[in-house]
Design a protein that fits this description.
The structure holds two protein chains of two kinds. Chain A is of the alpha+beta class. Helix content of chain A is 23%, strand content 24%. Chain B has two domains: 78 residues, Roll (Ubiquitin-like (UB roll)), CATH 3.10.20.30; 92 residues, DNA polymerase, domain 1 (Orthogonal Bundle), CATH 1.10.150. Chain B has six helices and five strands. Chain B is globular, with a radius of gyration of 17 Å. Classes of the chains: A alpha+beta, B alpha+beta.
Chain lengths: 704, 180
């Protein structure tokens, strides 16, 4: 049955705005929260789970000649070895990343070529090591550089236009009195959530039940069902706890298909698959490297007359992912002449995908370091330069801004940070063995609302309400903030809400991605709650319920709805070793009304930490001979540890945005990472006078 | 090859048959169903599998189960009281929102309990200026000592506040007991 579509009206905040403790906090601090391979799943006759282990390709391109499972099958405990000759057939093989074990083609190193099933994880792992895969290598290309041939994709991630052009930027650049013309690079970056991708699958002959580590139970069901030749309802996906994702668990990846296929070979017996940390670097998505050529033509007073942002990224030959790195340049600053372009190189490499703030993160690194260079060339304070280029309307659409408060973020941040005391020129401050400097960058993220969300409200005994939607909490605090939203929409205390989520059997919830979760699920919950009151009044009998689909509340068509922020950083660069440390990092944001200050602060700080991590450490090294990511673990792919994070703080403006959601809120999951690496890079320039245009900001850049 | 070992896990004596290749982490998670310690890397690089092993924090993914026959293991689940009351470190993590996705959290909590004990016992760290002096419960000491436990959600600010709060509470309690 299709639920009635209801467009809600704004709600009065009562619980919203309070720092309710994380609803699942006790489960998390005790370790009682159960993740994807921790559910005690058994078959109908009590069968314990089998353990699956992936065998992956070692050539970058070619074909599987033979899979010799003899030794593996002889190992005690090994039950079976599944390869392309004996795996169940998929009904739809159009997605080449997901259509594994269907043919002999190898499209990148690290691709799944076999799955070993065994009674214990020890025997599964040893069995996988004993599988002999003979591969025939074909010529390949795995190097992404200035010489890589590129093409223009039809559109870029998020559905944005590939190129935009206003006025005549090239002519305006040629006659500009002040220019910036530089190329900025970001490396391959890996989401690296603490819980590796994992799932427990059980096929009972009619229904596939998947305890999955995913950001979207319904999207996984919607993808896997048709691929497996099943009706969507025959797939049930549960994800009550997800150990982080940052985009890598936003779309289903090949391991989910592997565990589903494996389970279908052993009806009635559960199969557990935990992808190893090493395998994640080839199989679960990553942020592609980017190269952005940014040009500004400005008047001596700092006003930008022309800008170009031409960006190149790379993707896998078998699946396009076009990182939208030039998109934020379309909304940031006023300039009558402007162009943005995206080009993509196709390589025989692992498939890139979403990583926290795809597009905005690498694009704003380039854009905001370029702004720092323009500030230098015009002699303006970097805060003042941004204020002078504040656009009155959205330069991209011409629409009025819904709630653009970048200038207030910059001013509030500058005051909190003590920006005014900063020496104007670079290389001006030495403290012992350290150069000291400060930097600023702006951040932005669009307000995204996903259509199709449906929520159910049911009255329970004792004045309680059951609220259901297939949303997920991947650590964002969704379980807590949706409870608060439901409470306010029903005008009851949050303790009276029983929230049911993270199960694809529940009404449709969209992916926890694009900072759209709270916006989209919350709007649907408010719609259902208001319709429930209209249907059943303020004193409903226990057991009555209303299911409603969310109409489009957000005024996206007539307004430009975006969040903005400003990041301030103090960096210290060691005079003799080049080591970079960040003693202070501050973000000030305009994100609409904050639903829960405690969990929101964690989200914004977490984004800042991940941006700091990208600034200082993260660098996926690719072996050009095979496309293999050499830095495939947490000892070589460095992410920020506790000692790397010093004084760090996040603030937000007092804000209400009822153009975006009936809660007055906008999304907050991603904006914290945007601009952060640029602020750190700009601070290292101010400290040393050395301009680094590529991440990460390793010590070698600063050695004299 | 299999071997039978006995462990005391969160106060319960458990006898279990393990493969000689089985890590202590897999013995807990896959053989005993104790999933409080998490597997983040299986290579001793992330800290998610930290428990208190015979009273000291330890990475269980780098320990072979057969080498720890008779050991006493306390996971984050065993730190709370029998009535479910949270350990002061757990309570402080909750209040300061020192977790987001929760996956590294049981390891962080066990590590924090170990850190506070190590500071109390006077162990120096990499950032202790005077190796003979009593280390203080400073931001720098806590950050350094907790750096074996990665948190990709970036909850470090909350974790720092939580560890310090729990440490200060324990210090005050010890002071009161000493005065009484």
């Amino acid at each position: 049955m299709t639920a009635n579509e209801v467009t809600p009206t704004p709600i009065a905040p009562r619980s919203i705005g309070t720092s309710l403790l994380r609803r699942d906090g006790v489960e998390k601090v005790t370790g009682e929260a159960t993740y994807a391979v921790e559910h005690p799943v058994t078959g109908p006759d009590g069968q314990p789970p089998l353990h699956a282990w992936l065998v992956t390709s070692t050539v970058a391109r070619g074909r599987v000649v033979t899979v010799d499972a003899t030794a593996a099958l002889a190992h005690p405990g090994v039950v079976s070895v599944i390869d392309h000759t004996n795996a169940p057939r998929l009904a739809d093989t159009s997605d080449a990343e997901l259509a594994i074990l269907q043919d002999d083609a190898i499209a990148f190193r690290g691709q799944i070529v076999a799955v070993v099933l065994a009674g214990t994880s020890e025997s599964a792992r040893e069995g996988a090591a004993l599988v002999r895969v003979e591969q025939e290598a074909e010529p390949h290309e795995a190097v992404f550089d200035e010489d890589s041939p590129t093409y223009a994709p039809e559109q870029v991630n998020g559905g944005s236009e590939t190129d935009t052009l206003d006025g005549d930027p090239d002519e305006a650049l040629a006659r500009a009195l002040v220019t910036v013309d530089a190329t900025y690079t970001t490396p391959h970056e890996f989401n690296s959530p603490m819980e590796p991708h994992a799932a427990t699958a059980l096929w009972d002959g009619e229904r596939l039940t998947l305890h999955d580590s995913t950001q979207g139970p319904r999207p996984v069901r919607g993808t896997l069902g048709p691929m497996l030749g099943l009706a969507e309802e025959q797939v049930r996906v549960l994800a009550p706890y997800v150990g982080g994702g940052f985009g890598s668990k936003g779309l289903p990846h090949a391991p989910e298909v592997a565990v589903a296929l494996a389970a279908m070979t052993v009806p009635g017996q559960p199969v557990r698959l935990a992808v190893t940390r090493q395998q994640m670097f080839a199989l679960t998505g990553y942020r592609t490297a980017t190269r952005s050529h940014v040009r500004f033509g400005a008047h001596p007073d700092g006003r930008i007359e022309a800008l170009r942002h031409d960006t190149v990224s790379q993707t896998s030959r078998i699946k396009e992912f076009a990182e939208q790195a030039a998109v934020p340049a379309r909304v940031m600053y006023a300039a009558p002449h402007r162009a943005t372009t995206h080009r993509v190189a196709e390589l025989d490499v692992a498939v890139p995908s979403w990583m926290r703030a795809p597009g905005e993160m690498p694009g704003m690194f380039a854009h905001e370091v370029a702004m720092d260079e323009l500030a230098l060339h015009t002699g303006l304070d970097p805060v003042e330069l941004r204020v002078r280029n504040e656009p009155e309307v959205d330069p991209d659409t011409g629409n009025p801004w819904g709630n653009r408060r970048l200038v207030e973020c910059l001013r509030s941040g500058a005051e909190r940070f003590g920006w005014a005391e900063r020496p104007t020129g670079p290389r001006a401050t030495v403290d012992g063995e350290w150069w000291v400097g400060t930097g600023v960058a702006a951040s932005t993220y669009p307000m995204l609302w996903m259509p199709g969300n449906v929520a159910r409200v049911r009255s329970l005994d004792g004045g309680r309400y059951g609220v259901a939607i297939a949303a997920t909490d991947i650590g964002t605090g969704a379980r807590t903030v949706l409870t608060q939203i439901a409470a306010d929409a029903l005008a009851c205390p949050p303790d009276a809400i029983d929230l049911d989520m993270a199960d694809s059997d529940l009404p449709f919830g969209s992916v926890a991605g694009g900072s759209s979760g709270t916006t989209s699920w919350g709007t649907a919950i408010v719609a259902a709650a208001q319709q429930f009151r209209a249907d059943h009044g303020d004193h409903p009998d226990p057991g009555v319920e209303t299911t409603a689909a969310s109409g489009q509340y957000a005024a996206m068509d007539g307004h430009a709805l975006h969040s903005f922020g400003a990041v301030f950083c103090e960096a210290r660069v060691h005079r003799y070793t080049g080591e970079v440390r960040v003693p202070r990092l501050l973000g000030v944001y305009s994100v609409g009304r904050v639903v829960n200050p405690r969990t929101a602060r964690s989200q914004l700080l977490g984004g800042l930490v991940m941006g700091l991590s990208a600034a200082l450490f993260e660098d996926g090294w690719r072996d050009p001979r095979t496309g293999h990511t050499v830095t495939q673990d947490l000892a070589t792919y460095h992410v920020a540890a506790h000692a790397d994070v010093k004084e760090i703080d996040a603030h937000w403006l007092d804000d209400v945005d009822e153009l975006s959601t009936p809660m007055g809120s906008r999304g907050i999951g991603e904006i914290g990472i945007v601009g952060t690496a640029a602020a750190v890079a700009n601070a290292t320039y101010h400290a040393t006078g050395v301009r680094v245009r590529g991440l990460p900001l390793t010590a070698d850049h600063f050695l004299e | 090859m299999d071997a039978e070992i006995t462990l005391t896990v969160d106060g319960q004596r458990r006898t279990v048959t393990v493969d000689t290749r089985t890590t202590l982490l897999d013995a807990l998670r896959e053989r005993l169903g104790v999933t409080n310690p998490k597997k983040g890397c299986d290579h001793g690089q992330c800290g998610s599998c930290t428990v208190l092993l015979d009273g000291r924090r330890h990475l269980t993914c780098l320990a072979l189960a057969v080498a720890h026959d008779g050991a006493e293991v306390t996971t984050a689940g065993g730190l709370s009281g029998p009535d479910g009351a949270l350990h002061p470190v757990q309570q402080a993590f909750l209040e300061h929102d020192g977790c987001q996705c929760g996956y590294c959290t049981p390891g962080q909590v066990c590590s924090a309990v170990g850190v506070l004990d190590e500071i109390r016992q006077g162990h120096a760290s990499h950032v202790s200026e005077d190796l003979e002096a009593e280390p203080g419960l400073t931001d720098e000491e806590v950050r350094e000592r907790m750096s074996g436990n990665l948190c990709r959600c970036g909850a470090y600010a909350g974790i720092l506040a939580a560890v310090k709060q729990a440490g200060e509470q324990a210090g005050e309690q010890a002071g009161q007991e000493g005065a009484a």
